């Protein structure tokens, strides 16, 4: 792997002609587009499915805890597959990795469109999760490895546009689908885009660096499987336990034992994985990237920002439908202006990084993003209406889009070029886990507030929902501020490292 350093983004050169100059070739742009479409579709379905849950519960005769596995199981598989990206990049040609990803996504989409029962739909979502777990880091690896150094910020902005806009658009797409067509049709439409992505990627993706003889240790994979499954189950059961406690159900306190035990198992498995990786000649992910203080703080900021965005994607549609009585379509449309703004701003913020460095666009975001959440937490209430929610979210997305991609780019620039695939794997993995955390925490706020109220559709239930949403917005405000402080700490660390 040491040979990769000469061809990496660190000095802006590879054997490929487009990387040796400052020109971004059409072929590279199309390769990024092909992988980006696949990753976008995968992330889009994360939040899209939330709006479709009521319809799916009716059709398959299942309850809320069961239908949630369409998202929880998907996120779990993405989180398990993403850490393999560094190993796959070292072992296999990029085109073969792309073929694996697109095959999984296409088969999953076909199964989802023609699902006869819930287990079949769940299996389809698992296959889609595996495909997304391969596609997302592949897109960033292509950008980092093959882009001219002066264009990395812009292209990383385009790549992170997928991560930022797709979950925000999910409720809108889900609302439109739920209103105007059967839910299966969305997978038929997505299948067409996936086929186009596959044809485009197989023609345009090129190999920039040679593969090496990497080895996969099954015990390392087993540790990650145990850690992530335990973590996801701990989140789910912990949320259910807290909701049960708020309802004063018999034996509710004892329900906390299992999630706490699962969390301990997850931590122990991660510690074992870290120790084994440090002693391995061919680790699954080279954790030496975490020695960089700058990288660690940027990674934390990135994870916190993603959890907030996914949290908003869950809270806004659900609170508007259950609290204000809006239709699924209107609830989804409320986040559309912010999503479109994010799509426009992400590449612009990347170009600002190319011209001025990461500190300037992130500093602007440090003002705008917290302001949007502060307004959401302090102004939104039962009598304010949904337009104000859309406006506050619009302001948050402006700051988020200025900061999100640049946080990742700045974090990866602070580590050795040959470790950037590993750093990318960590960013992508924790991005998915943070999405699960954001969704679970927001559902707990709603569940606790709704405990003891009347049935769904009553005025007391609506009032309880809006109360839970308010405290959820307060929590998201605190997390955004923490993310900005983490970015400040990263810049301080980078300044000290540069002086040293």
Automatic annotation (TrEMBL):
<keyword id="KW-1133">Transmembrane helix</keyword>
<feature type="transmembrane region" description="Helical">
    <location>
        <begin position="122"/>
        <end position="143"/>
    </location>
</feature>
<dbReference type="InterPro" id="IPR011701">
    <property type="entry name" value="MFS"/>
</dbReference>
<feature type="transmembrane region" description="Helical">
    <location>
        <begin position="183"/>
        <end position="202"/>
    </location>
</feature>
<feature type="transmembrane region" description="Helical">
    <location>
        <begin position="97"/>
        <end position="116"/>
    </location>
</feature>
<feature type="transmembrane region" description="Helical">
    <location>
        <begin position="155"/>
        <end position="177"/>
    </location>
</feature>
<protein>
    <submittedName>
        <fullName>MFS transporter</fullName>
    </submittedName>
</protein>
<keyword id="KW-0812">Transmembrane</keyword>
<keyword id="KW-0472">Membrane</keyword>
<feature type="transmembrane region" description="Helical">
    <location>
        <begin position="297"/>
        <end position="317"/>
    </location>
</feature>
<feature type="transmembrane region" description="Helical">
    <location>
        <begin position="386"/>
        <end position="405"/>
    </location>
</feature>
<feature type="transmembrane region" description="Helical">
    <location>
        <begin position="28"/>
        <end position="49"/>
    </location>
</feature>
<feature type="transmembrane region" description="Helical">
    <location>
        <begin position="214"/>
        <end position="235"/>
    </location>
</feature>
<feature type="transmembrane region" description="Helical">
    <location>
        <begin position="255"/>
        <end position="276"/>
    </location>
</feature>
<feature type="transmembrane region" description="Helical">
    <location>
        <begin position="426"/>
        <end position="451"/>
    </location>
</feature>
<feature type="domain" description="Major facilitator superfamily (MFS) profile">
    <location>
        <begin position="31"/>
        <end position="498"/>
    </location>
</feature>
<dbReference type="InterPro" id="IPR036259">
    <property type="entry name" value="MFS_trans_sf"/>
</dbReference>
<feature type="transmembrane region" description="Helical">
    <location>
        <begin position="329"/>
        <end position="350"/>
    </location>
</feature>
<feature type="transmembrane region" description="Helical">
    <location>
        <begin position="362"/>
        <end position="380"/>
    </location>
</feature>
<feature type="transmembrane region" description="Helical">
    <location>
        <begin position="69"/>
        <end position="88"/>
    </location>
</feature>
<feature type="transmembrane region" description="Helical">
    <location>
        <begin position="471"/>
        <end position="492"/>
    </location>
</feature>
<keyword id="KW-0813">Transport</keyword>
<dbReference type="InterPro" id="IPR020846">
    <property type="entry name" value="MFS_dom"/>
</dbReference>
<dbReference type="Pfam" id="PF07690">
    <property type="entry name" value="MFS_1"/>
</dbReference>
<dbReference type="GO" id="GO:0005886">
    <property type="term" value="C:plasma membrane"/>
</dbReference>
<dbReference type="GO" id="GO:0022857">
    <property type="term" value="F:transmembrane transporter activity"/>
</dbReference>
């Amino acid at each position: 792997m040491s040979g990769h350093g000469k061809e990496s983004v660190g000095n802006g050169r590879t054997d490929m002609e487009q990387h040796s100059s400052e020109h971004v070739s059409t072929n590279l742009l199309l390769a990024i587009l092909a992988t980006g479409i696949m990753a976008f579709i995968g992330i889009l379905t994360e939040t899209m499915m939330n709006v479709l849950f009521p319809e799916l519960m009716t059709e398959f005769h299942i309850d809320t805890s069961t239908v949630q596995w369409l998202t929880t199981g998907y996120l779990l598989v993405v989180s398990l597959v993403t850490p393999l990206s560094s190993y796959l990049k070292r072992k296999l040609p990029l085109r073969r990795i792309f073929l694996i990803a697109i095959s999984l996504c296409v088969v999953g989409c076909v199964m989802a469109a023609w699902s006869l029962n819930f287990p079949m739909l769940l299996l389809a979502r698992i296959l889609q999760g595996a495909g997304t777990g391969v596609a997302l880091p592949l897109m960033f690896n292509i950008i980092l490895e093959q882009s001219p150094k002066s264009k990395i910020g812009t292209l990383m902005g385009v790549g992170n546009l997928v991560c930022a806009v797709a979950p925000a658009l999910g409720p809108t797409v889900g609302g439109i689908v739920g209103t105007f067509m059967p839910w299966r049709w969305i997978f038929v439409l997505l299948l067409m885009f996936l086929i186009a992505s596959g044809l485009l990627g197989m023609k345009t993706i090129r190999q920039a660096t040679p593969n090496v003889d990497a080895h996969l240790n099954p015990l390392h994979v087993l540790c990650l499987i145990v850690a992530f499954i335990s973590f996801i189950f701990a989140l789910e059961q912990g949320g259910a336990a807290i909701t049960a406690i708020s309802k004063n159900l018999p034996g509710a306190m004892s329900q906390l034992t299992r999630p706490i035990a699962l969390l301990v198992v997850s931590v122990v498995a991660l510690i074992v994985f870290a120790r084994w990786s440090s002693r391995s000649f061919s680790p699954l992910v080279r954790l030496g990237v975490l020695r960089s203080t700058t990288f660690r703080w940027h990674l934390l900021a990135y994870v916190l920002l993603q959890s907030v965005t996914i949290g908003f994607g869950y809270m806004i549609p659900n609170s508007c439908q259950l609290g204000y009585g809006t239709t699924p379509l209107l609830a989804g449309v409320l986040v559309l202006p912010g999503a479109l703004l994010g799509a426009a701003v992400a590449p612009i913020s990347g170009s600002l990084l190319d011209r001025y460095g990461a500190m300037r666009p992130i500093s602007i975001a440090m003002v705008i993003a917290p302001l949007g959440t502060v307004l959401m937490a302090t102004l939104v209430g039962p009598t304010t209406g949904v337009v104000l929610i859309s406006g506050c979210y619009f302001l948050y997305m402006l700051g988020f889009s200025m900061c999100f991609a640049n946080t990742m780019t700045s974090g990866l620039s602070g580590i050795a070029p040959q470790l950037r695939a590993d750093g990318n794997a960590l960013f992508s993995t924790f991005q998915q886990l943070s999405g699960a955390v954001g969704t679970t925490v927001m559902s707990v706020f709603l569940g606790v507030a709704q405990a003891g109220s009347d049935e769904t559709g009553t005025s007391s239930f609506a009032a309880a929902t809006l109360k839970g949403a308010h405290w959820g917005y307060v929590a998201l405000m605190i997390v955004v501020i923490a993310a900005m402080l983490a970015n400040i700490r990263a810049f301080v660390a980078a300044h000290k490292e540069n002086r040293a």
